[in-house]
């Protein structure tokens, strides 16, 4: 073959190889491939994480020694999570009016099926299983609490009517150490004097008393002055802890959101006080001889959180060997994120640190990365990839976290040392 023809053939072959490499590279290397259409395009199927800390497809960051993955997806409006006695997970999807059952493969620890068991509900939020009857599920809609025996043909029955209408509509429920049902009911407004004392409070209902009297007694007010204490839990000492969102329209930095230790009969200040017994003269124009927010009239917050962070789910880390000892007794809190601040805040999970004696030691970020620059520049809520909501911490070094914007449940695990 003449030398010129040989060179032409070599050039053609080389160009062909370069083209092939470009096509393969486009598929494997994102800068050359098409951008994902939406958040679900970068979410892998349900299951545990591969090697590495983050397999979500989102730019999430968490401390060394932890991994995060997508446990379940295609769950828009994912809010409150509760495991039943079979190890399956029940999930309220408030914006969708549904309660969804995620059936878990026990051997693999993955979701094998998910389906809406209850539909067409009125803003369902709180879920709680009766500690005395493992399959009896209580469901809180905006206007009522009802209960139903799961895995049966039970039509369910209403146990409580709740105030509804304007304002905050989530109703969170949980059984306390006393086996009584606690219900949080947010305010009907941003800041006002409530005509119904059940608003801006935490209620307590005793199912055992209702059964003994064969009636439907009203719930009692356990604590008041809580503008919107959406989530609450108990520590090992049986103390109730609740997150609370402060009022709007006092600027970017006021008032603080809060974490409160909630005690029976106490008033936590709203609408005239916030934070560490600070009076709100913008709303309350009355003149006082002494600060109306001082103890014992109003209870101060335990922890002040940056304004508009919107703290929601909270859970304590148990003192067990599956968890790093440095995390024992700490409180993980989901900051849902601001909608009304010039520079967004929140959109993360934080770690509030405590020692074994319950002394507060400070705060640091645990998971960040949901808030990313938007297409128009800067950080805006519209650019957020997700908004964390509820947290379940398990002794086995596992955390489940719901996200009502991305419509997923994350699984965070403590990495095992070889």
TrEMBL record:
InterPro entries linked to this entry: 6-blade_b-propeller_TolB-like, Beta-prop_PDH, Quinoprot_gluc/sorb_DH_b-prop
Domain spans labelled Pyrroloquinoline quinone-dependent pyranose dehydrogenase beta-propeller: 61-413
Superkingdom to which the source organism belongs: Bacteria
Keyword Ribonucleoprotein recorded: no
Organism for this UniProt entry: Candidatus Sungbacteria bacterium RIFCSPLOWO2_01_FULL_59_16
Segments traversing the membrane: 7-29
Record's protein name: Pyrroloquinoline quinone-dependent pyranose dehydrogenase beta-propeller domain-containing protein
SUPFAM superfamilies in alphabetical order: Soluble quinoprotein glucose dehydrogenase
The entry's keywords: Membrane, Transmembrane, Transmembrane helix
């Amino acid at each position: 073959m003449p030398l010129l023809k040989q060179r032409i053939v070599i050039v053609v072959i080389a160009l062909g190889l370069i083209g092939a490499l470009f096509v393969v590279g486009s598929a494997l290397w994102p800068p050359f491939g098409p951008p994902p259409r939406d958040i679900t395009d970068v979410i892998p199927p349900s299951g545990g994480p591969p090697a590495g800390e983050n397999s979500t497809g989102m730019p999430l960051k968490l401390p060394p020694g932890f991994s995060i993955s997508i446990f379940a997806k295609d769950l828009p409006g994912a809010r409150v999570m509760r495991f039943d006695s079979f190890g399956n997970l029940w999930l309220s999807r408030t914006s969708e009016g549904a309660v969804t059952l995620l059936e878990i493969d026990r051997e693999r620890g993955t979701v094998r099926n998910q389906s809406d068991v209850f539909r067409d509900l009125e803003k369902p939020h709180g879920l709680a299983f009766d500690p005395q009857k493992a399959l009896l599920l209580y469901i809180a809609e905006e206007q009522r609490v009802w209960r139903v025996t799961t895995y049966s043909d039970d039509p369910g029955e209403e146990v409580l009517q709740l105030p509804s209408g304007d304002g905050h509509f989530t109703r969170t429920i949980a059984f306390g150490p006393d086996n009584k049902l606690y219900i949080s009911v947010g305010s009907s407004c941003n800041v006002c004097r409530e005509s119904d004392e059940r608003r801006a409070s935490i209620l307590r209902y005793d199912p055992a008393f209702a059964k003994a009297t064969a009636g439907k007694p009203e719930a009692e007010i356990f604590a008041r002055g809580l503008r919107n204490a959406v989530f609450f839990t108990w520590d090992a000492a049986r103390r109730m802890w609740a997150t609370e969102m402060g009022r709007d329209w006092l600027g970017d930095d006021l008032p603080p959101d809060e974490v409160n230790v909630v005690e029976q009969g106490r008033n936590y200040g709203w609408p005239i006080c916030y934070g560490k017994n600070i009076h709100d003269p913008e709303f309350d124009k009355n003149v006082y001889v002494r600060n109306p927010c001082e103890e014992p009239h109003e209870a101060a917050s335990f922890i002040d959180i940056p304004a508009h962070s919107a703290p929601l789910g909270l859970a304590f880390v148990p003192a067990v060997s599956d968890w790093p000892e440095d995390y024992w007794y700490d409180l993980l809190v989901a900051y849902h994120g601001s909608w009304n601040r010039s520079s967004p805040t929140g959109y993360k999970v934080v770690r509030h640190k405590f020692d074994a004696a319950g002394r507060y030691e400070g705060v640091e970020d645990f998971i960040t990365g949901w808030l990313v620059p938007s297409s128009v520049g800067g950080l805006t809520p519209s650019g957020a990839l997700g908004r964390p909501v509820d947290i379940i911490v398990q002794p086995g070094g596992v955390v489940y976290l719901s996200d009502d914007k991305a419509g997923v449940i994350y699984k965070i695990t403590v990495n095992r040392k070889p």
